[in-house]
Amino acid sequence: MKVRRGSLEATIAQGLKQTAGYADKCHPEEAHLIIVDPSETRSWDEKVFVQERSADGRSVTVWGM
What proportions of the chain, in percent to the nearest 5, are helix, strand and coil? Predict the structure, then answer.
């Protein structure tokens, strides 16, 4: 889980690297990353999403909220 601080892409990039590292140690069947956006100015339509990304050859589902 990461809290969005600054750009969404930078937060996702950091989180993907960390999530892939954890997954390499634990060997889970799936890997998920949750991005929490505490902004009061962005709407829920902007904050809520789901994407499939890849990090170090591992598929990671990224959830925004």
Answer: 35, 30, 30
